Amino acid sequence: MFRHLQNSEIIQQLTEKFEEVLGGHGGCWEWGRQAALLTRLPQDSAEDVVPEIRAICMEELGTWMKSYTASFLTDGYLKYIGWTLHDKQREVRLQCVKALQGLYCHRDTAAHMELFTSRFKTRMVSMVLDKEPDVAVEVVKLLTLMLE
């Protein structure tokens, strides 16, 4: 979808689209038109070749999950964060872990993540030995939150 654009153009287009979806409707969702964007965006970004875009999308997806729990804190969206825990780039893995920290720090959101936890707990535990120390430290913090 974005492979022909420069990073700044991609970020600009994503920002404009996001503002159009949220800002233009006073917080109300017009599900017909926006559903297509919100369904395709995680899929397209997860496959994007630019690691910065994948990292930004995972960060924003985590924010959407916290802000719009009923719509986005579902296995259909959580799987994108789980799959991206395997990303080759440090910054992408780090953003996934930080997004998960934001979700697991609240008991009410953590309660909705049982299937995700059971599916990706092995990967999260193995990330304690991540080759990047900052990722490993954040994973230890994440696992601590999960135990609380």
If you compute it from the alpha carbons, what radius of gyration comes out, rounded to the nearest whole angstrom? 15 Å
Distance between the termini: 40 Å
Beta-strand percent range: under 5%
Q: Helical region count?
A: 9
The tally of domains stands at 1
Query: How many β-strand stretches?
Result: 0
In the CATH scheme, the class would be Mainly Alpha
Shape: globular
The secondary structure category is: mainly alpha
**What would you say the CATH architecture is?**
Alpha Horseshoe
- CATH homologous superfamily placement: Leucine-rich Repeat Variant
Describe the overall structure:
It is a single chain. The chain has 148 residues and is mainly α. Helix 3 (51-67) packs parallel to helix 6 and helix 5 (75-84) packs parallel to helix 8. The chain contains nine helices and no strands. It has helices at residues 7-23, 31-46, 51-67, 69-72, 75-84, 90-104, 107-110, 114-126, 133-147. The N and C termini lie far apart (40 Å). The protein has a single domain (7-147), classed as Alpha Horseshoe (Leucine-rich Repeat Variant), CATH 1.25.10.
